[in-house]
Amino acid sequence: MQEWKSSPDRKPLVLEGARQVGKTYILKEFGKTEYENLIYINCDNNDFMKTLFEQDFDMERILRAISAYSFQSIIPGKTLVFIDEIQESPKALTALKYFCENAREQHVVVAGSLLGIANRENESYPVGKVDILKLYPMSFEEFLWAKGADDICELINEQRWDILNSLDTMLQDMLRQYFYVGGMPEAVLSFITDNDVPKVRKIQKAILKTYDRDFAKHAGDETTRIRMVWNSIPGQLAKENKKFIYGAIKKGTRAKDFEKAIQWLVDAGLVNRLTRCVNPTMPLSFYEDVNSFKLYLLDIGLLGALSDAPARLMLAENGVFVEFKGAFTENYVLQQLLSVDDMPIYYFSKDNSSQEIDFLVQTDERVIPVEVKAEANVKSKSLHGFVTVDHAGKHLKGMRLSMLPYVDQDWMENVPLYAFHGRFL
Predict the structure, then answer these.
(1) Quick one: which of 192, 132, 184 has its CA closest to 19?
(2) In angstroms, rounded to a whole number, what is the distance separating the alpha carbons of residues 290 and 412?
(3) In this structure, which long-range contacts are made by residues 362-367, counting pairs with CB atoms below 8 Å and at least 24 apart in sequence?
(4) Do residues 297 and 323 touch, judged by C-beta distance below 8 A?
(5) Quick check: 94 and 124 in contact, CB under 8 A?
(6) Distance (Å, rounded) from C-alpha 360 to C-alpha 280?
């Protein structure tokens, strides 16, 4: 956001992200620390914002009205205008085009639930007229920061395996905590402040109820199908083969019955869709099979709440790593991968074979096949055969994420799950 502020090509900024991931907090802090004054306007139940853009998109009139409403002067470069819950003001999103074209010198940021922004009708998204940043739930690294474990983060970033190996038991316990708490800021804050495990689950359940109410508010006729897809995800991920099966939602259903509902959830930022790639060759997008995909929840903590996973299995035992057929572990790895922008991520499976690679990741340098193992038992022929036999001519080097210590072999690196983040690649 600091780079956005100083950019000569700056446009109005849209901070995207699912509800409750911390957009309002981040933008308010940005306004307070980086500007002389912050004008904050919440569009929810705000008659002023409902009528502000109805007359026209005259920026001089609009800015004068905002100044009068807030009792503050608007000075380019010194004032941040923050419009929150923008989905509640029908024409506010369209107005960003005119902020860009006719009031570019003004610093304007907006936030709102993607449930309302991405799926709104009758209002066009101002493509090319806004800058976009996306906020995800907190990663494991950010969870460690919240716990005050900055020194551990530093050891992980420096890849000090000699020290990290000696801290293995403690780090596994911290990872179990993250699997339970997840990365929704309110849940993390409660856990760090009160260490109250039942309270964390109540917060997660409340967030899920908020999402469910938003389905009805924004999805119209798709509401029932969206709920069916949403509630089927834990069961889909608990399968050995996690490919999304329409028949698992309701027997006899077909793709056309639920395609719109799935896309709605993806656009809303509530699920992440991982599509199949049939050839580990750059660019991976050339070999995408859009008809085969997996769906993961935006947050591992919410996955536990949605599936009613017992706290005992998640926190007090190794159940979270050995139960649920790796559902939590794969969701965790994808969350860490998504913390790196613009990195293509797919999965690989072979036709007429059980061979599957959990993630294919494309960096600027190479394609990396990533295998995820939820425990210390890592016996699997898939990654070894994939790298050394099936695609030996491509000179790939795999990565296995498991509970074993770090080791670098010719054909793959084994990285402890607690030490993995997207930047590692």
Answers:
(1) 184
(2) 28
(3) 362/282, 362/283, 362/284, 363/425, 366/282, 366/396, 366/397, 367/280, 367/281, 367/282, 367/284, 367/394, 367/396
(4) no
(5) yes
(6) 7
Structure tokens at 166: 């000696």
* Measured distance CA(211)–CA(185) in Å, rounded: 16
Report pLDDT for 390.
92
Residue 125: φ, ψ to 5° = -75, 135
d(CA 328, CA 330): 6
Amino acid at 33: T
What is the sign, positive or negative, of the torsion defined by CA atoms of 199, 204, 209, 211? positive
Global confidence as pTM:
0.91
Task: Count the neighbouring beta carbons within 10 Å of the beta carbon of residue 127.
Answer: 7
**DSSP secondary structure string, 260-289?**
HHHHHHHHTTSEEEEEEES---SSGGGGEE
Please name the residue that has the structure tokens 């923050």.
Answer: 82
Q: Could you tell me which of 339, 351, 381, 233 has the C-alpha nearest to residue 287?
A: 351
Blockwise average pLDDT, block size 10, the chain, 425 residues: 96 93 96 97 91 92 96 96 88 92 96 63 73 94 96 95 94 94 97 95 97 89 94 90 88 88 92 96 96 96 93 72 74 91 90 86 94 73 90 94 92 94 78
The answer to whether 258 and 246 are in contact (CB under 8 A) is yes
Coil, strand, or helix at residue 378? coil
Amino acid symbol at 278: V
Q: What is the C-alpha to C-alpha distance for residues 267 and 170, in angstroms, rounded to an integer?
A: 37
22-60 as b/e: b if 16+ CB within 10 A: bbbebbbebbeeebeebbebbbeebeebeebbeeebebe
Q: Which two tokens mark 134?
A: 């996306």
The closest alpha carbon to 172, from 313, 308, 323, 321, belongs to 321
Rounded CA-CA distance 93/89 in Å is 8
The phi, psi pair for 41, rounded to 5°, reads -130, 120
Backbone angles phi, psi at 257, to 5 degrees: -75, -25
Burial class from Cβ neighbours inside 10 Å (0-12, 13-18, 19+) for residue 162 reads exposed
* CA atoms within a 13 Å half-sphere pointing along the CA-CB vector of 157: 12
For 116, other C-beta atoms within 10 Å of its C-beta total: 20
Sequence-ordered strand ranges (E) for 43-104: 79-84
Residue written as token pair 């993630």: 359
Residues 6+ apart with CB under 8 A from 159: 406, 419
> Given this model, what pLDDT does residue 201 score?
97
